[in-house]
């Protein structure tokens, strides 16, 4: 197999389920590709650059095939669908959202997606300055939501996972904190897809209500 940055990034992503982001090293990626670690440095200079390439791979996969809204499609529904794509891409891998957080994605797919989003918002009546604020808000919400969602999967806790359904209900004393106990139990059993979309709808409603939309 011919090495390039995408091949290396995909190999690194493939290791995440086993070792997580904290356990990822250039040496382990090289071993997975059956090469020596110095061979990687022709294509990625260091782990920081590797993480950027991994984030690029996640984002490219997320937006593959994205097009402008269909005729008559509501702009909010289109944005919900776009962010859901990104969530699905990051949840494919353990720590996928952590990979995307704080990384730099320099790819045509990023700029095309942002341009489509801005045009969709302007067509929906947003002023240019308001439209420019929306994409970062939705990106940050999506990454933050998935980081929390993946943390609740408990992969980093092992047997001591505090998010196990049989355990989480006993963490908060319902006699002293009845509302909090009910909330914790409800959050643990909630449908993550539904909760993700609910949060998006709240954000979008707030964007309109606060006058970001012209």
Characteristic terms for this protein:
mainly alpha; flat; Homeodomain-like_sf; transcription; TetR/AcrR family transcriptional regulator C-terminal domain-containing protein; HTH-type_TetR-like_transc_reg; DNA-binding
What's the helix and strand layout?
Elements: H1 5-19, H2 26-32, H3 47-63, H4 75-91, H5 96-100, H6 108-123, H7 128-151, H8 165-168, H9 178-189, H10 192-209
Helix pairs in contact: 1-2, 1-3, 3-4, 4-7, 6-7, 7-10
Q: How does this model look, in words?
A:
With 214 residues, the chain is mainly α. The relative contact order is 0.10. The chain contains 10 helices and no strands. The longest helix is centred in the middle third of the chain and has 24 residues. It has one domain: Tetracycline Repressor, domain 2. This is TetR/AcrR family transcriptional regulator C-terminal domain-containing protein.
Give a short synopsis of this structure.
This protein has helices at 5-19, 26-32, 47-63, 75-91, 96-100, 108-123, 128-151, 165-168, 178-189, 192-209.
Q: State the CATH topology.
A: Tetracycline Repressor, domain 2
The total strand number stands at: 0
Largest sheet: none
Number of domains: 1
Structural class: mainly alpha
Euclidean distance between termini CA atoms: 52 Å
From the alpha carbons, calculate the radius of gyration and give it in angstroms.
20 Å
Which blocks of ≥5 consecutive residues have pLDDT under 50? none
Provide the CATH top-level class.
Mainly Alpha
Q: Count up the helices.
A: 10
| N to C succession of SSEs | HHHHHHHHHH
Can you give the helix content as a percent range?
55-70%
Q: How much of the sequence is in beta strands?
A: under 5%
């Amino acid at each position: 197999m011919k090495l390039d940055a995408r091949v290396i990034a995909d190999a690194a992503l493939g290791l995440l389920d086993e070792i997580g982001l904290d356990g990822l090293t250039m040496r382990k990626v090289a071993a997975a590709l059956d090469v020596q670690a110095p061979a990687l440095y022709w294509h990625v200079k260091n782990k920081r650059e590797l993480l950027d390439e991994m984030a690029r791979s996640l984002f490219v996969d997320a937006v593959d095939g994205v097009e402008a809204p269909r005729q008559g499609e509501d702009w909010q529904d289109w944005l919900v669908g776009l962010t859901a794509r990104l969530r699905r891409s990051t949840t494919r891998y353990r720590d996928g959202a952590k990979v995307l957080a704080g990384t730099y994605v320099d790819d045509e797919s990023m700029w095309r997606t942002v341009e489509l989003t801005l045009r969709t918002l302007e067509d929906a009546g947003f002023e240019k300055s308001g439209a420019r604020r929306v994409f970062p808000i939705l990106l940050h919400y999506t990454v933050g939501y998935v980081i929390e969602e993946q943390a609740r999967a408990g992969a980093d806790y092992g047997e001591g996972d505090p998010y196990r359904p049989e355990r989480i209900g006993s963490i908060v004393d319902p006699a002293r904190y009845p509302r909090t106990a009910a909330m914790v139990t409800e959050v643990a059993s909630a449908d993550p897809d539904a909760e993700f979309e609910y949060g998006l709808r709240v954000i979008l409603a707030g964007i309109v209500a606060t006058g970001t939309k012209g």
